Structure formats: structure tokens, C-alpha cells
């Protein structure tokens, strides 16, 4: 039986996620092809590419949502590297709720709109085994503060929140269970520029302060530049270039990366 | 590395840019660069615009990739090949051994000046109180008024932003420093302060490679020059 309680501090000598030849086909069509990498605690990996490049497909395999057609995804938990798709579905889903987290582009996909903001956060605490009502409420208030939502909104439903506030609530809901790995799919997509800036800064601080490993899917190179240490560039399901973010953006080697970086408008 | 006190060495460093989306145009920059920098030495790169000074400096940091050749740096007790290092290893080298000081501050929204200066120290394990004290001393030395310390630098002048950049890089300088025109936007008074900081780091054993267009600064700082026109690619 897999122990789902938040594990003790992972050794930083071992990677937390190992992708090996991850491939997902849709019939004859390539979703993603032969993607391999290792991610260590505290590292932020960006995956960039245009729509249809395969980045969301890849993320869904890495996050345990879709089974790859070939290859493996191993996650380090309680000192062992566990092949995600060797687990049965209920165990994998339970792990998904506690050991790692997913921030969706549309916050409504990651929130329960019918319960209060505090309830959204508290629900995750209960999943992790917390039972005491007072503790749950205090932790929820603390996290609302950390994502800069007025604690007085704790009993309001997210339907009354702005898009930016909903996204910040989703982040709190994901991070409250202290996952060691967080996936974010276009975390600032659909938000106004000023709201984006604030959210990016918040993410930057939280990822650094919590020592999270994170994988961020984005088409926005400015987001990649600000948040990520490493970058993988995807085109038509394949990784065409990878390296440190500054390497890939400042000295792109592949034709497609050069195209992407030259297309960015500067203000 | 040949000299036992060498902190950084290059071997046959060659760079050519290939512009795939402009007909595959090839832009050769330099070839066959060999040099070493010892602790306590400051090498100033010289040559006309286009000779590849910034390109070389960025390659030493692992930011640009060489077409061929090696860059080796001393990292703790070992020697690391920057070109072959894994991303993880290179990040660790940059964290502890290799510092980059550019012409501009990369402004991250909403972070106050004092926090920008404290950050590298905190990440290297210096305590909060000590980091704050040293940050304040450095900002004062660079003539940045105290009322600016709690503000984010986004609205500061170019010279003020650059002094925040300098403060962050010199308050706890890395053993190897790469300086790309650090005094470009500064007036003569502040240029003098920065020259003192560079010489101080050098005299305390830092190995420095830098680009300075101002000849007075160059003369004050350089142990020797490396003229890139000798390595110009055909």
C-alpha cells in the first residue's frame, strides 16, 4: 500500500521525475514522440511551442492523466522511483492529489465552483489527512494571504471572483497539500497583462520559497524567461532543442527556435 | 588547466552563428581562442565592435554555445567543462563559482531593491541579518539614497538600476567574475566606486574577465589585455 502522506524532504541528489522515451500516438498521428529528461527538486522546466506542438499531450502523460503509447514516467516517492502507470488508477489518482499538483489554464477546471474559496483549499487538506476544523480554517486563511486574496473572501464562492483571483485560488488549492512537483499549463493564459505580471511574480516567489520542482507549459517566451531554469522546445510532437533557458533563448541553434525567438515583440 | 592557480581556461574556442531563417547565412566570429585566467588576475577583452567580445564573454558563462572548443572553470575543488556540463551542473557552477555582471539590470516586477541585493547571499546560505547589513552598506557605498531601498527599481534611472545590479554582484562576489561593460551608464563619481569594487574583488583573489570601453576604467582594472582581432575568423 502506497503511503500518501507528504513525504519527508526528498534528497536533492536524486531526480524527482524521470521521463524515458515518452510517446503518445493518436492512431497514426503523433501527439508527442520519444521525450526523455530528468527533473530534480527545485528545478523549473519550461516546455514551449506553438499550439499543436504536443506540449499539453506530453504534460498529460507526465502528470499521470493519459497513459503513454510507449516509454515510461517515473516519480520518486518515499525513496523509490515508481513507474506511474504500474500503479492502479485509484492509487495513481490519490498520488496526483497529494504528491503533485496541476494548475490548469482555466481555473474553473481546477476549482470546485460550487463550494467556498476556503472550502476549495480545505478539501485538499482533508485529502492529505488533516481533520481538525480549526486547523483547516487557519491554514486556508494563511494560504489565501499568500496568494494575495483577502481572507474575508474565504466563505465566498469562486464564481464571484475575477479571473486573476480564481487563478490565484487554484494555485493555493494546489500548493496547500505541499506537492513536491507542480505542473502548470499556461498559468497566465487568458489574463490581462497587469494581472499576468502580478501572477508571474507570485509564482516565482512561491516556487523559489517552497523549493518546488515545476513543469510549466507555455507559448509565451517572456513567461519562460522569468520562471524557468531549463527549457524544451517542441515542434510537431518532438523536442527540437533543449538547454538552460538563457541558452535556448539567447543562442538558439535549431531553425524553429530561431524563428520563435525572432518573432517576439519587445515593448 | 596548465597553471595550478588558473580559475578559468579556454581551449581552441571557435564560434560561428548560423541563421537558419535567413538562408542559412553563416557569420563566423572568431576561432582558436586559448587563454587562462588566474586568481587575482583581470583580463580585459579588447577589439573593435563585432570582434566577438560579448560573444566570448557569454560563452564563458555558458550562455552562448561554442561551435567547437572548451571552456573549463574551477568549481570548488574540481574543474568543470562548461560546454559539456549538464544543465543542472552548470546551474550549480553559476550559483557558486561564476558571476555575470551585465550592462543592465534585469528587472523583475515588484521586488524591492534591498531584496534584489540580498538574494544571492541568501541563496548561498548567508543569514538574513548579515545579508541585510551588507546589502545596506553596499547600496550606501554606491550612493543610492536610502528612500529607494524599499522600492522596486523599475522606475529608477539607467544609472541607478545599474548600481543596483553592481551592488547585487559585488556584495558577495563569485570567485570568477565576467563583466560586460558594468560602468557603461554611470557618471564619473560612481564609475570610480565601481572600479574600486572591481579592484577590491581582484585583490581578494577573484579571477576577472571584462569588457570596458572606457579606457580609464580599463587601465585601472586590467592585469592584461586579450586582443580578439588576433583570433578573427576568415
Annotation field: number of helices of chain B = 7
Strand content of chain A: 15-25%
Q: In which range does the helix fraction of chain A lie?
A: 25-40%
Distance between the termini of chain A: 54 Å
Oligomer: heterodimer
Q: Main sheet of chain A, how many strands, which sense, barrel?
A: 6 strands, mixed
Order of helices and strands of chain B: EEEHEEHEHHHEHEHE
Please give the share of residues in helix of chain B.
25-40%
Regarding CATH, which class of the largest domain in chain A? Alpha Beta
- Domain module tally of chain A: 2
The interface involving the most residues is between:
A-B, 22 and 17 residues
Q: Which homologous superfamily in CATH is the superfamily of the largest domain in chain A? A: P-loop containing nucleotide triphosphate hydrolases
Q: Determine the strand fraction of chain B and express it as a percent band.
A: 25-35%
- What's the number of helices of chain A? 9
Total beta-strand segments of chain B: 9
Task: Provide the residue-averaged pLDDT of chain B.
Answer: 93
Q: pLDDT below 50 for ≥5 consecutive residues: which ranges of chain A?
A: 6-10
**Distance separating the two termini of chain B:** 28 Å
List keywords for this structure.
heterodimer, A: 267 residues, alpha/beta, Rossmann fold, 6-stranded mixed β-sheet, 4-stranded antiparallel β-sheet, 9 helices, 10 strands, 36% helix, globular, B: 234 residues, 34% helix
Amino acid at each position: 500500500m502506497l503511503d500518501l502522506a507528504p513525504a519527508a524532504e526528498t534528497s536533492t541528489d536524486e531526480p524527482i521525475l524521470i521521463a524515458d522515451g515518452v510517446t503518445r500516438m493518436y492512431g497514426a498521428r503523433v501527439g508527442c514522440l520519444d521525450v526523455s529528461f530528468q527533473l530534480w527538486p527545485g528545478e523549473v522546466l519550461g516546455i514551449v511551442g506553438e499550439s499543436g506542438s504536443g506540449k499539453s499531450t506530453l504534460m498529460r502523460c507526465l502528470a499521470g492523466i493519459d497513459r503513454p503509447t510507449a516509454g515510461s514516467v517515473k516519480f520518486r516517492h518515499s525513496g523509490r522511483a515508481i513507474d506511474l502507470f504500474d500503479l492502479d488508477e485509484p492509487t495513481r489518482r490519490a498520488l496526483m492529489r497529494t504528491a503533485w499538483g496541476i494548475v490548469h489554464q482555466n481555473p474553473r477546471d481546477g476549482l470546485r465552483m460550487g463550494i467556498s474559496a476556503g472550502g476549495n483549499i480545505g478539501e485538499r487538506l482533508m485529502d492529505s489527512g488533516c481533520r481538525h476544523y480549526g486547523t483547516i480554517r487557519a491554514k486556508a486563511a494563511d494560504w489565501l494571504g499568500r496568494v494575495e486574496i483577502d481572507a474575508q473572501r474565504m466563505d465566498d464562492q469562486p464564481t464571484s471572483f475575477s479571473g486573476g483571483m480564481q487563478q490565484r485560488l487554484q494555485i493555493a488549492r494546489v500548493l496547500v497539500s505541499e506537492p513536491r512537483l507542480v505542473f502548470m499549463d499556461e498559468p497566465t493564459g487568458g489574463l490581462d497583462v497587469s494581472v499576468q505580471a502580478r501572477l508571474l511574480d507570485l509564482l516565482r516567489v512561491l516556487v523559489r520559497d517552497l523549493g518546488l520542482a515545476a513543469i510549466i507549459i507555455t507559448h509565451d517566451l517572456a513567461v519562460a524567461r522569468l520562471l524557468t531554469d531549463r527549457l524544451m522546445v517542441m515542434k510537431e510532437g518532438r523536442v527540437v532543442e533543449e538547454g538552460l533557458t538563457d541558452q535556448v533563448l539567447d543562442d538558439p541553434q535549431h531553425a524553429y527556435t530561431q524563428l520563435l525567438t525572432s518573432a517576439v515583440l519587445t515593448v | 588547466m596548465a597553471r595550478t592557480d588558473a580559475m578559468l581556461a579556454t581551449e581552441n574556442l571557435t564560434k560561428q552563428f548560423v541563421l537558419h531563417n535567413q538562408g542559412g547565412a553563416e557569420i563566423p566570429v572568431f576561432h582558436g581562442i586559448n587563454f587562462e585566467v588566474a586568481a587575482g588576475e583581470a583580463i580585459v577583452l579588447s577589439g573593435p565592435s563585432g570582434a566577438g567580445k560579448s560573444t566570448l564573454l557569454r560563452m564563458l558563462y555558458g550562455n552562448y554555445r561554442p561551435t567547437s572548443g572548451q571552456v573549463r572553470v574551477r568549481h570548488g575543488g574540481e574543474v568543470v567543462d562548461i560546454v559539456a556540463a549538464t544543465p543542472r551542473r552548470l546551474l550549480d557552477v553559476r550559483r557558486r563559482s561564476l558571476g555575470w555582471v551585465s550592462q543592465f539590470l534585469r528587472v523583475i516586477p515588484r521586488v524591492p531593491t534591498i531584496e534584489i541585493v540580498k538574494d544571492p547571499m541568501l541563496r548561498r546560505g548567508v543569514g538574513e541579518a548579515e545579508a541585510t547589513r551588507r546589502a545596506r552598506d553596499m547600496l550606501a557605498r554606491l550612493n543610492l539614497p536610502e528612500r529607494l531601498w524599499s522600492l522596486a527599481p523599475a522606475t529608477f534611472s539607467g544609472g541607478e538600476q545599474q548600481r543596483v545590479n553592481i551592488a547585487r554582484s559585488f556584495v558577495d562576489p563569485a570567485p570568477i567574475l565576467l563583466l560586460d561593460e558594468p560602468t557603461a551608464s554611470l557618471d564619473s563619481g560612481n564609475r570610480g566606486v565601481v572600479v574600486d569594487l572591481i579592484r577590491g574583488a581582484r585583490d581578494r583573489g577573484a579571477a576577472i574577465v571584462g569588457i570596458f570601453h572606457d579606457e580609464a576604467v580599463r587601465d585601472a582594472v586590467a592585469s592584461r589585455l586579450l586582443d580578439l582581432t588576433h583570433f578573427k575568423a576568415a
